[in-house]
Design a protein that fits this description.
Length: about 425
Amino acid sequence: MPLTLSTYDPVLKDFWGPAIVEQLNNDIPAWKILDESARKYAGRAVVFPVHTTRNAGVGGRAEAGTLPTAGNQGHSLCTVTATYQYGRFQVSGPTLAAGKHAFAEALAMEMDGLMNDCKVDWGRQTWGDGTGRLAQIATSATAGTGSTVVPLQNRFQRAGQPGARFISIGQLVDIGSIAGGAQNISQTVSAVSVSLNPATTTDSITLGNSAATFSSSQQWVYNQGSYGSGGAGIEMMGIQGIVDVFTEANMWGSNAFWSANLHGIARSAVTSWNANVLGNSGTTRVLDSLLMQTGFDQIHTDTGQEADLIWCQHSVARVLFDSLVGDRRFASTVFEGGYSKLTYNGVVVQKDRLAPYQGLFIGVRSTLQKFTMMPVQFIDKDGAILSRVANQDNFEGFIAYYGNLGLEGNMKSLLMIRDIRVDI
């Protein structure tokens, strides 16, 4: 009888690969590209004046006529407060000991992974509206039995809606409204469903709590702990909250993502503090060269500056590339077989998976900057990064970043094209 694999199995070895194979996308272009502001925090906020209105006391007059009524320059104080961003890990003593000869040393794996996870969340916040909203409830439900499936509006129901794209299995979430208190706190997500079919106008998440109730009447899903007073001021101010117009309707079904005030200046009163938005009242339309050039011209008309930044999500980039197929202009980066990136007006089109659906950002890069009170770091103020958990053979540590996204230039140098048709 020949020797077979089954009889020889006890002496065979398994070959283990040299490293863990990454299955998650940690790319965060917007967060990495934005520069750090040179302005420093003095106490709780960075405060500086911005020029908002002209002196109206100018004009021609008849000979010996009365001079124009004296006016003055108008200024407002911009106040950029810091937000406090954290990431926390915990590992047991036996795991620290056993992990020394594993594929990855346990402590290093947790610390590196946490740093990536924090940066991905900050990348999401960079594109957010400052309120912490991850998704909008689509239909109401009351407490039932077993798990609770929560339907969420998606981009097929209303242009720009994120659906469940920013929610993952195992994540803790809160559900509540902007005005009222949170209705469901620290709910664990056990399943996520994201629709790719235009006929299916909702995504869904499943909560492992039969007592959960929720309403489609202006209720949203938040990252656990980021709710606060409607989430306002807990998460960083994001591009969608900054690049906005107070009177412009948005994907949430309201005017203005943030509120009447941005960094302490009332957009309802100081009109120059509104950015530029090219929307279409929620009705999607084709992104062509005329619409793109309108965006570039609007920025130059309002500021005298030329845009040097184009950002969008991959589906928007595809339709832009397709619309410009007859007039392709490529960046100078060359790989084997051809060129790598498309440009418009000499500006490279940057793709960011965390950018909003059906929207495209055009702007002057130096205008948007990160205001940092404390840079990203593992906290060791008590002399060690690891702290022992009381009464347990466990150790923990955390990352912190204190800062926010703010303005260092002309608000009108930032523009968002909304309501772009991507499912053609």
